[in-house]
Amino acid sequence: MGQGLWRVARNQQLQQQYSEQCFLQRDRERGRRMGPPLADPLQQRRTLQCQVSSTDISHLLRVRKGKEEQGFIDLEMLPPELSITILSYLNATDLCLASCVWQDLGNDEYLWQGLCKSTWGHCSIYNRRLPSGFSYRKLYMELDEGSLTFNANPQEGVSYFMSRGILVDHPKEIAKFIFYTRMLNWKMLQIYLDERRDVLDELVTLHNFSNQFLPNALRDFFRHIHAPEERGEYLETLITKFSHRFCACNPTLVQEVGLSPDAVYVLCYSLILLSIDLTSPHVKNKMSKREFIRNTRRAAQNISEDFVGHLYDNIYLIGHVAA
Fold it and tell me: What does the DSSP assignment read for 47-63?
């Protein structure tokens, strides 16, 4: 039922082994005080084979009162952070099945609230006064259903969220939802942002590139808004919006280095081409640092040679800016 359940079951097995070890060792010590042991040699060998070194697992998972009790460990006995970590490996279907095993935990609204906000960081419904009888468990199922719908058809997915009152039909709210959500397919997201440029503008504004080196800022940008696989109008739009946002976040750097949105635009394309050149196995003759500096300064003459050289070093050491 998922990696989380498997790990809990495995830890339970380790606890059983440790309990048997302690039981057998206690009997063996008692036998030394009372005289020769009555057990046969075969049982003594089994006692030696039951030794387990992990005592921390015993203290963490000591949740059952007797050896005769069976079944899964009650997650309510674990720290809340550990319970949420275990359950975060499960999807909506497995969570419903898990709630049948841990019934008290499955009815904990604080747990479902934490799962909602850890997966979908921003929703318009979070900031509204919730009605009596509101269920975060039901909200989790609706968010999961809406995300699956979005990954099949972006427009229908957004319409689903709005019909359930989860999102408000405003570009800034939709942009925040996209920015803080990790369940959306990047290809479907690219299609949606290409059609909704107002949402794209708000999404770019959410990025803060202050005091970031240009290649690192570009990586952070493409981590939230994936670059298209082919060069086209959409890629040019992304780089243009990034260039203006980067200069707006770094006014001091603009004055010291002499950057401008046009210069950043040129440098971004140079970084993308350099990334492809250095990381592609099909390019045998890699571009040298001297060649990169010469080619880049032809297009951006106001940029110093040292700054362009640092750009090359960053790509050479860290890797592709749009990977």
Answer: HHHT----HHHHHHS--
